[in-house]
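Give me the 3D structure for Lipoprotein LPP20-like domain-containing protein.
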Amino acid sequence: MSDQAASEKEAPTVEEMVAKQPVVYKVPKSALQPQLIKISGIGYGAESTYEGYTPGQRRLMAIRAAKLDAYRSLAEQLYGIKIDSNTSVATLTAQNDSFRARVNAIVRGARVVSITPMADHNYETILEVYIDKSFFHNAFVYSKKEEETTISAEDLCRTLTCHTIGE
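Predicted structure for Lipoprotein LPP20-like domain-containing protein (167 residues):
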């Protein structure tokens, strides 16, 4: 029985074998050397002339409109604009020409830089967001696949300043 106990102690468990092997991740090379760029969006909003609103309500709605316009401006720069266009031609003359621009995006991490009152009860809002330069390479179809490298979990955490949760 003692020989069997000795042989069991000599054979490492699966957990021990896994613990001895370093954890390695495949990550894009740009993740190890992020290059942040600042994107700014400017938006404008005008106070409503509707008499049913108080002056405070009109001012707050104009500020809100300016902020949403600035977010739209950021989204256009980050993700592009979808243009729908239609032109009708009769007897070689343009009869009707219409177009519509759309943006469908999520913008996270933007901060309000300023909200400035302007002439004629208008407001200007400036937002900015910092993104990694690789965002543009990964977000669009026409870009090439980025090179990957392998890195251990410990080195990755040292590079990216990881924080342990739950300890």
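The chain has a mean pLDDT of 82. Let me know if you want a second pass.
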